[in-house]
Predict the 3D structure of the following.
Amino acid sequence: MPWRGGRTEEIPTLGWQVLDWMSTHLPSPSNEKDPFVLTDEQAKLLLLWYGLDPRTGSFIYRRAIIERAKGWGKSPLVAANDLAEFCGPVCFDGWDADGEPVGVPWGTGDRPAPWVQIAAISEDQTDNTYGALYDLLTANDHRAAKELGVDDGRTRLYLKNKPGRLEPVTASAGSREGQRVTHGTLDETHLWKPRNHGVKLAATIRRNVAKMGGRTVETTNAPTIGEKSVAERSGGDADRGHKGILWYSKRPLVEPDPDWSDDQMIEALDEAYGDAYWIDRRRLLKEIRDPATAWDDALRFYFNIRTVGAGRAVDPRRWDELAAPRDIPEGTPIGLGFDGSISHDATVLRGCTLDGYSFDLGIWQPPPGAVDWQVPRSEVHQAVHEAFARYRVGRMLCDPPKWWTEIEQWSEKYNRPGKERVLGLDTNSKSKFAPAVDRWLTAIREGVHTHDGDSLTGDHVKSAHLEKVRDAADDTDGRTLYVLVKGEEKRRIDAAVADVLAYHAAMTMTPPPTTKPTFISA
């Protein structure tokens, strides 16, 4: 028979059966003599996660992201859920005589045998969830393992009387392709980044799970914005309204400030932690007030608020807000910024108008997997020529290392008597680069530097960090100066440098004449 029909804001769900299964078979993580019982907030999350379409019986959600403050209880919750996916009633098997959904384990009927993976980027991190899971199975003289027929190995689990496995995994994404995984837990995905192959591993596990009709759950603290972690990407997917994604995140309505009173801080912690009664808010407050705790870390870990990370040059959200693509007519006065490389980094040419709008004129970088790639210098020459031919270039600032010869050629070709338009600005000279960076940062903060929204330039800008050149007290203008540098992940920032140079060129150049000179084709 069909579903019995809903009451107010109700959907059919297998969550009630899963909750009963957990409390019947699993012990409390804090006291093995008590049954496993979730808080009201956690139980509501589980009911949502196992929610069904009342017409088809298919799950509403295929991916879940549990983004909550540190210590909220993510690991015990997903550990219990992993065990349910291993041998609990998590597969829809129709409606009973009362119109309620019926759940059965994987491996029932023609369903594939359960294969559950708990994935992380290191063995220590897989132990967050797998260790909690193992403790649930082995408490009370291995009671749960015996009742459920689980061979409770320390490194992986099997079912004793039928096929099925549960395992922690950290291997490279390539070796995981094609595995018949029915459920995947992606643990601490704020640490899963392109550089450590976390993004690739997440995509591989999702593909494997999809072909088996399974689902994935991510756990994470609030990620650092701009790192391109799996957590950041997943939250973005959910925020853009992609269907089938359950993003479960809670944070204070108002972002805390370091100057808040203790009572205000406690109230914000209450908002972040909800009904996680085991969290001692006063103890956390001491950690937050500790001078060794960076405020960005306090926001991310204890208040579940995404931050841009310490030392990042530009708030990625601010950069995205300033995107305002437009056409630049021929003959427009512009400045040019050029940052050159030979092989490993990118070579970038950007333009900037007198009103502070920057745009792409050429980006050259090694394709993925390239070994002997070299910058196509003839293409760079042509792009520079086209920029001077199309626009009225008042100044071009170039980062000269490895491009001295070309810059000399451009100087001979495009400079006028008594007016140098092509100039070198060595970004390795902090005293020369810092004023340009300062002008650029100020314009971004004040919203007067807009741009074309080029995605690669955006990636480079969001990857750039600041290195202090001198303190405010070192100079009478009261301003602390910085230069742009690569962050710990050493991601490219060449387009950011070119953007700085283009903006600085436009703001410092003498407006060119109203007519364009004619140049011989390169």
About this structure: The CA atoms of residues 427 and 433 lie 5 Å apart. The chain has three domains: 15-249, 262-309, 317-508. Confidence is low (pLDDT under 50) at residues 471-476, 518-522.
